[in-house]
Amino acid sequence: xxxxKLFESxxxxxxxxxxxxxxxxxxxxxxHLAEFLLYAGRPVVIMRGRSEVGYFLPARCWRQRExxxxxxxxxxxxxxxxxxxxxxIQQVEQEFNAMRQRTVLxxxx
Length: 109
What we know:
The chain has 5 helices and 3 strands; from the N terminus they run βααββααα. The protein is α+β, with helices and mostly antiparallel strands. Residues 1-16 have low confidence and may be disordered. The protein is 47% helix and 14% strand.
C-alpha cells in the first residue's frame, strides 16, 4: 500500500483534509520521512507523547498559500506557533537562493 495516501486522495473531487496542521509522532515522521517531504500539503506538527517537539512546513504548502486560503491559514498558524513570521521565511529563501547562485557548479564549455 502506498503511503502517498496519507496526504492525497485518488478521488479528483476529494476535499482537503481541513484547516490546520497534521500531527505525527517522531517515530511516524522517521518511518515516513520521504512521504512527508514529497506529498505533505499542509504543515505538520511533530509530537513526542503530548508535547510538540517540532514543526515542518512543506514547500508545497508555502507555495500554495497565495491561491489556497486553507494553506495560508495553516501556514500562518504553524509560523505563529513556532514564533516566526512570513517575512522570516522569505528572507531565508532569498539567502538560500543567493548562496545557491554562488555555489552551483556551472557546466564546462
